[in-house]
Amino acid sequence: RDSSQETWRRLKEYFAERLFWIYLFMLAVLVFVRLTFFIFHVMFPTYGIRVFGEGAMVGSIFGVLNPVMIVFLVPLISVLTMKVRSYTMLLIGTAVSAAGVFLCFMPESIAIFLSETWFGELIFDRWLEVPVGQRDPFYVSLNIFIAVFTGGEAIWSPRLMQFSAEIAPRGKEGAYIALAILPYFVGKALAGGMSGFLLTTYTPETASVYPDHEMVWLWIGGMAMISPIGLI
Fold first, then answer.
1. Are 202 and 213 in contact, with CB atoms under 8 Å apart?
2. Contact 14, 20 (CB under 8 A)
3. What's the maximum distance between 2 C-alpha atoms anywhere in the chain?
4. Does the pLDDT of residue 179 top 80, yes or no?
């Protein structure tokens, strides 16, 4: 009982502070770019199989490229940007991630050109092992998009905890840092419903071709752009 009363007292104290509401708004804004990350886990496997065909190694496109890049980029970027304000890093990182989604819409002529270079050979032959005749140029667009998206994530995601500690009033750092997990929780809650809507609308199970499948990324990119715009 005493613990519950103390928790309630602290919550009333936090919600009476203007800074706390600003911080909550910032976390709500970050949900949109974080939601993109979770949509990959929920939607992308089904989407990739329907667009590229059975047997396509779509799991490697995000499930391998993203974590490998994060492992190397996060410490490197952290060292190079130690003197940059955390809020600036949040703004830059979310803008890069959101803008990266629209690389899906690069002209097909550019994607075809890249497919015929060493970059295309790396993707089709040495990594995804895509059979000749099934080498959709959209593979190239997706890989570039995910690489840029991951670069943005490596910029902003680690600095969220740091920003939470910096903005919190003295003695309340723990509560603010605990709330920094909110974008992850809300993003996971929304990812399932949005993934189902996008799959059903643009890559329905009963269809054999999906001429509008790229519209999935227009929705996701537009949603992700809310984060950097909201931070501004």
1. yes
2. yes
3. 69
4. no
